[in-house]
Amino acid sequence: MLEVKEEELKKILPFDGPSINEVKKYLEKYNDEYIVIKCGGSVLVDQNLFNIFIKDITTLNKLGFIPIVVHGGGKRISSKLNELGINSEFIKGLRVTGKETIEVVEKVLIEFNQEIVEALKKQSCNSETINSKNNNIINVIRENDELGFVGTPTKIDKTIIDKIVNDKKIPVIAPLGLDESNQTYNINADTAAGSIAKKIEARRLIIMSDVEGVLDDSQKLIPEINSISIKDLIDNETITGGMIPKINNCLDVVSNGVKGVVIIDGRKNHSILFELLSDKGSGTLIRQ
Q1: How far apart are CA 56 and CA 120, in angstroms?
Q2: Phi–psi pair at 274, nearest 5 degrees
Q3: Intra-chain end-to-end CA distance of the chain, in Å
Q4: Gap between the Cα atoms of 44 and 133, Å rounded
Q5: Helix (H, G, I), strand (E, B), or coil: what is residue 206?
Q6: Rounded distance, CA 134 to CA 150, Å?
Q7: pLDDT per residue over 213-245, tens digit each?
Q8: How many CA atoms lie within 13 Å of 109's alpha carbon, on the beta-carbon side?
Q9: φ, ψ for residue 4 (rounded to 5)?
Q10: Do the Cβ atoms of 42 and 51 come closer than 8 Å?
Q11: For the segment 148-206, what is each residue's pLDDT rounded down to a tens digit?
Q12: How do 260-265 and 283-286 pair as beta strands?
């Protein structure tokens, strides 16, 4: 159980976040367990949302949680490639990554990785970079020849994560990996986060995106789904397009030791805190 005195809670929690009574109740649920938080979409390009995200991670850290941050960067990568006149092509949502593109991808993601670490440090939240050049933890193989330098994780080095956490720092992980000849590969950020969550047997994997969660055919949020209801939702085409691989990745994660995966809306204020520390949550919880 995480123990924080009520007076401390008043100082730590944002005024527009979950109530102190709710937080006290939910702190009892967690005990030295990893929570993987994958951030992407608008959170990474909207400065206001980014600032809230940084403050929420800092709040979790002060409460005694062990958040592991995995970030994307697709919009920043597209912007940089456009600026350089390099065309972006996608196959089933994955960026075709040639020799020229992977160099840009790696540079953008490492710069952004460092930016997140610096932002956390400014909030007195110690953190450390994990990327292809520093503390690499992901070994990959090529997904297929068509996609080029896009990798599928084959091994996650948990010892580096454990060391950073034991040093009271937050690991901030870029979705990059190396093959056996030390060639850098781009990895889908959801896939990277899922592989890490499985390896460290996280209590939760939270996927922040630009959608509320999984919606029913009336466009209302579904608070919780499992493998049976997911099959029905795909069969009746309630879940379609790019949401199908995202959901299948979530199912793979909950089938391999992670207690639950949640898709939440990163555009909503303090969505991480409301998901972990309130009665209502803030997205769709996926269980086995």
Answers
A1: 10
A2: -65, -35
A3: 25
A4: 21
A5: strand
A6: 19
A7: 999 989 999 999 998 999 999 999 999 887 888
A8: 30
A9: -135, 130
A10: no
A11: 999 999 999 999 999 999 999 999 999 999 999 999 999 999 999 999 999 999 999 99
A12: antiparallel
For residue 86, the one-letter residue type is: I
- Return the amino acid letter for 136: N
pTM: 0.95
* Torsion angle of C-alpha atoms 214, 220, 222, 228, degrees rounded to 10: -80
d(CA 285, CA 256): 16
Output the CA–CA distances (angstroms, integers) from residue 73 to 78, 105, 122, 136, 170, in the order listed: 9, 9, 21, 18, 19
CA dist 114 → 110, 111, 155, 177, 188 (Å) = 6, 5, 23, 16, 19
Token duo for residue 100: 């020229």
Task: Please state the length of the chain.
Answer: 288
